[in-house]
Amino acid sequence: MNYSKTEISELIYLSLQSQKEKLEKQFLESSKKIGFFYLDDLLPTELALKIYENFPDTKELKLNKNIREYKFVGYQMNKYIPLLEEVIYAFQEKKVVDLVAEICNIKEVQPDTSLYAGGLSSMERDNFLNPHLDNSHDKDLKLWRVLNLLYYVTPNWKIENGGNLELWQNGIKQKPITIKSKFNRLVVMATHQKSWHSVSKITVNKARCCVSNYYFSKLPVLPSDTFHVTTFRAKPNEKIKDFILQTDGKIRNLIRKVFKKGIRKTPHQYKK
Question: Is the N or the C terminus of the chain less surrounded, counting Cβ atoms within 10 Å?
């Protein structure tokens, strides 16, 4: 069966709506630090498996490998099986966006059709993502980034495989909470200047596949939020690496204050 974004969005909507009260409570209870919720069995198993089976090989994705991160990403969606684009944009249908915003009690939320920093993510053995704050704004610096949606589709994923989401709710010097990258699980987290998060290193010869979206708003999540580029830190036992990453972040933030649009346009966006 071929699924359209409209059909998939209806399935997402119904799953969220059925657990709305529980998800609102989960987000509210965590919102004093990093607001988040997660929902298992988001889509029918058959569809979730189909998404995974049609995920592109890492040879078809762009490799991001440096001191900050090591992962593969895809955002030029017309290069891949149409189902993957339908899934991504299903999360951007108005009824889904409005419901997620209502659950999180965030106003004036809108999706990002350009997939700036969103799209597909695949992580294999030794891949990782250091603790970081997401870029505070959209690519045009007009809207605040307010929500991060992560939908995991790798079957039989075990927590000991790594590749799990880590939320550093008490800062990067304290132990984070770990949210398993469980098959058919949707995780939604708030993005603001305290939303430090990371992905633990993959320890197995298997790819952890994820469909990601960001939502934006004219208003920041926290009144105290200020502009910043994507800012990385190291884990507590990596002092030298942390010094390098802090210096790197300060330099890149300074450059963006001088060159508001950056020195070059980010390649990570869907050019239709």
Answer: N
